[in-house]
Amino acid sequence: MEMERYLGESSGLLANSSNCTDAPSGATLKVTMVTEKLVIVIFLGLLTLMTAVVNSAVIAAIFTTRKLHLPANYLICSLAVTDFMVAVLVMPLSIIYITMETWSLGQVVCEAWLSVDMTCCTCSILHLCVIALDRYWAITKAIEYARKRTTRRAAIMVTIVWAISIFISVPPLFWRHRPSAGVPNQCFIEHEHVGYTIYSTFGAFYIPMTLILILYYRIYSAAKTLYQKRGSSRHLSSRSTDSQNSFNHCRVVHTFCVSDLSTSDPTMEFDRFNVTIRMPSFETDMDGSDERNQICTSRERKAARILGLILGAFILCWMPFFLKELLVGLRVVNPSPQVSDFLTWLGYVNSLINPLLYTSFNEDFKLAFKKLMRMKEHT
Questions:
Q1: What is its main location (predicted)?
Q2: What is the chain's pLDDT, residue by residue, as a tens digit (379 residues)?
């Protein structure tokens, strides 16, 4: 009996000590979770703010700088507007959703948010596609496209991009699940229609990605071919037989070199270069020719680096998300909400990277940004 009483008292003491230790550990765990969530919210908030600020700076630079009023830059401006909309209309609600872990804004706001999310993100991706197409035409058809490269043409391209984006994002509105009563506690893209999943992922990403890769590959291949031709023909500088060929060759090569695949308009550079090359002088010594070849070679390497950054950032940001969407639609995987949120925000980050990549290598944009900073300091 004494032994049994001792054991009972001991078990009671152990239970009490267990309760005493569980309470602090539970409180510690709760504090840790709150701290982690606070860090995530602050980090995502900074990403959202940076995305809005950088894209608004690009928009302001184009509007306030006359030198940037070019059709090619209007496409960049439209891309910045789209990415700004992602930062203002999409990312903040996503932060709220991640923080609350439940949707409390109602079904109408949920459907509007998902539709705007899909439309703006798809539109941002398609903008990259038309920018690549614009550069491809500007490089491979410099003379012919210079006449067609107008503000009206840029507006038509932007309109087509928005129309395609809307056609991709609108269909789920007709079959998205609506709760019979109360407020929905979840708001996410449903994958009940496999056909639509394939249609949307291919239309919003896989087809544009393929087109972008093909366009930039052809741009770079054309440049490599022109560099090789220039290197092989520089020894054949006969004044009577090769003057026209040299003119045509230098014209296209220089168009590519000065553009450097940046947002500058190569046609304007060609106009200035054309004036100097109408009366070509073949008395120039080989040192000058070698120097020009070295300049073009260095610009070729720079163009390759820019291409690598543009394509690498685009694929790294969006490929994981759309691969997940396709596999979920095909019932192959079922990722956790945390993984889905991470892949979604990885795609959002592309809206921050776009204005940096498409303006950082352009001297006109750099000067415009400096001008904006000086204006801000004076105000």
A1: membrane
A2: 433 343 343 444 444 444 444 545 667 777 777 788 899 999 999 999 999 999 999 999 999 989 999 999 999 999 999 999 999 999 999 999 998 888 888 888 988 999 999 999 999 999 999 999 998 888 888 788 888 889 999 999 999 999 999 999 888 777 665 554 444 588 887 777 888 999 999 999 999 999 999 998 888 887 777 666 665 555 454 444 444 444 444 444 443 433 344 444 433 333 333 333 333 444 444 455 555 556 556 666 776 778 888 899 999 999 999 999 999 989 898 899 899 999 999 999 999 999 999 888 888 898 988 888 887 766 6
Smallest CA-to-CA distance from 352 within 118, 80, 78 is with 80
Structure tokens at 81: 């507007």
Domains and CATH numbers, the chain: 41-215+314-369 (1.20.1070.10)
Question: Does the predicted model carry a pTM greater than 0.70?
Answer: yes
DSSP state of 66: G
Residues in the chain: 379
| Residue among 177, 188, 190, 187 nearest 104 (CA) | 187
204, 125 contact by CB (below 8 A): yes
Q: Which tokens sit at 27?
A: 């409180």
| Token pair belonging to 158 | 């932007």
Q: Which residue has the tokens 């908030």?
A: 45
Chain centroid to CA 318? 9
